[in-house]
Amino acid sequence: MKKIALSVLFAIIGFALSSTVFNLQHSFLIGILVLLVALWTNEGLPLGVVSLLPIILFPSFDILSTNETASNYSKSIIFLFLGGFMIAIATQKTELHKYIANKLLSIFPSTTRGIIFSLAITSAFLSSLISNTTTALLLIPIAMFLTNDLSLKLRFVLAIAYGASVGGIVTPIGTPPNLILLGFLEQKGIETISFVNWIFLAAPLAVVMLIFIPFILSLGAKEIVLDKDIGKPVSLSGEQKRLGLILITLIIVLFVNSKIEPFYSGLGINEKGILLGYGLLMFVPKLGFLEWEDARKIPYEIIFLFGAGFSIAMAFSETGLAEQIASYLLALTSLPVFLLILLVAALVTFTTEVTSNTALISIALPIIYSLGEAAKIDIQLILFVATICASYAFMLPIATPPNAIAMSSGAVKVKDMAKYGFVFNILGILSITLIALIYWQFVI
């Protein structure tokens, strides 16, 4: 009860402070947001319970109606997660992740630091080719298998989650905010960033983050004692071969389906449908691997978490709080370019922590666009900074899909993610700002 009481106190303070700047409805929304973040962080209530609170609180304080709020818990992206979780459960059931783990350990050093680097780099590489959500879903069972030590599980799972976020920015197809930016540029009649140019822009930042994040995660970690069977050559069973072939076809379909402008227009199939379709395939007799009872292992609290994120984003938009914040930001246009980019990077990064990055960037891009026009700086540059920062929020599970999937593993507590994530947020903000000023503004 102490944690709940403390969260309510923080919410009241947040409401009181915001009421000096915003109207009553906006202040209520900010107070509720503080309450949710506090409860997610101190775990005063279960994650799923906190994530369902907007359905009660938003109508109670006249922010959104019950129907408007509840509709966010059935967004189409949630079915992408359902499909991905089904595939991940099948991978664990067939123990295919053990085979993949053995292969990984035959390539990289089997020290704790070597494994953390290998997991982060593998995750980042795959996330540049397929979505970071899918990558995290496929790799985290491997991290959970490698050790029984809880502190090492935490570091391994975070290495995959953070690696997926880091790699997701390397190509336009790695994470949804990238595609949202390209669509926004096209809508505004601004020249879009080509697939190849995007890689040249984002790759240096990803390399920097892939050096620092695994290194920091490995600091103070005990040396791993691998299970005697891990690292030994193993052969694939019939079930594992069948699932392996299905996963290979999934990766091929996802890659072939991806649009690579201006060279290839893709198949045009919705990725959410592909993931759900492959997930349901896991239940087909003689082809799949799951019974309906296995569906109980799906972490539904993570689905509720994303529903909460979309609800918060809708509340910001529908109540006009986003526009109100934008009007205050316009006062910053007289600042030097360095400070303006730094503030945009910090604002987007930390705001993304309390809502999904996909929902946040949809709201933020029009705001940042107006800010860039008023400040008379390169529009592409400042929008690119904002978009990358939307994927580089590492503190809370609601911020990005890989963070949420890391929480679903059971190896990560919100307070642990927040502790490491704050350091990586600061690292990301500084790295993005410096690279934007030293490199991006001369290339974009």
Please give a structural write-up.
This protein is mostly helical. The chain has a domain at 76-176 and 189-297. The protein contains 20 helices and no strands. The radius of gyration is 22 Å and the shape is globular. The model has no long low-confidence stretch (mean pLDDT 85).
What topology does this entry show?
Elements: H1 2-18, H2 24-42, H3 47-60, H4 66-70, H5 76-94, H6 96-107, H7 112-127, H8 132-146, H9 150-168, H10 176-187, H11 195-218, H12 238-257, H13 271-281, H14 300-318, H15 321-329, H16 337-352, H17 357-375, H18 379-391, H19 401-408, H20 414-443
Morphology: globular
How would you sum up the major sheet?
none
The residue-averaged pLDDT reads 85
Low-pLDDT stretches are none
- How many E-type strands? 0
The portion of residues forming beta strands comes to: under 5%
What is the number of helical segments per DSSP (H or I, 4+ residues)?
20
What structural class do you assign from the helix and strand content? mainly alpha
Sketch the topology as an H/E string, one letter per element: HHHHHHHHHHHHHHHHHHHH
GO molecular function: organic anion transmembrane transporter activity
InterPro entries: Cit_transptr-like_dom, SLC13A/DASS
Keywords: Membrane, Transmembrane, Transmembrane helix, Transport
Main location: membrane
Short descriptors:
444 residues; mainly alpha; 20 helices; 71% helix
How would you sum up this structure in a few lines?
Keywords: Membrane, Transmembrane, Transmembrane helix, Transport. The protein has 444 residues and is mainly α.
